[in-house]
Amino acid sequence: MPVTEIIDLLKxxxxxxxxxxxxxxxxxxxxxxxxxxxxxxxxxxxxxxxHKLALLLWDTNIHEARILATLIADPKQVTPQLIDNWTxxxxxxxxxxxxxxxxxxxxxxxxxKALEYSKHEAEFVKRCGFVLMAELAIHDKKSANSHFSRxxxxxxxxxxxxxxxxxxxxxWALRQIGKRNQILLPLAxxxxxxILLQDSKAAKWIAADALRELTAINPSRLKA
Length: 224
Fold this sequence. Notes:
Number of strands: 0
Shape: globular
Distance between the termini: 46 Å
Mean pLDDT: 97
Oligomer: single chain
Order of helices and strands: HHHHHHHHHHHHHH
Structural class: mainly alpha
Strand content: under 5%
Low-confidence stretches: none
């Protein structure tokens, strides 16, 4: 299916009301058509994996085409350079999250990039680092607890960042790792308690919000 045909299909699904509403959710809609994510996912199922097409779709600079690219790209063909190039193009939190959850976390470079991006100055690149931590906690079913506990010092270190899309990602990573199992839960709570002591509004919000959820969890309902 050629790129032009795919863009035409996306335009057919565009919703002017949804397009206007994207701004209310903090999504830059300047390069968007206004297509809801379920519609993009339906199209991805029809196209199936097609890495070459994904690269072409990304180059269109159309918001929904780029989300579609994250769905049909082949994780086995993703390189660290591709991750860097796509991440630099992020202009909204939803594209960042879709790329991390659909593609980047399924590559061998996910941890490496999470650690690297956690120190980045650009807001959405830094967000990517912590979203990767959260998505790995959700999707990586096999890795040992030590694979995730290494993220706690980084979460603690970066909890000062008051930028909205960074602090929410830091918070998400902390909560998601804590919810993974009975062993990581108390470690996440202890991390949140240390963060709460930091002299930063962002840190106190991250910690308080995480503790609200994590301390309400019955450990027996988590995986041992």
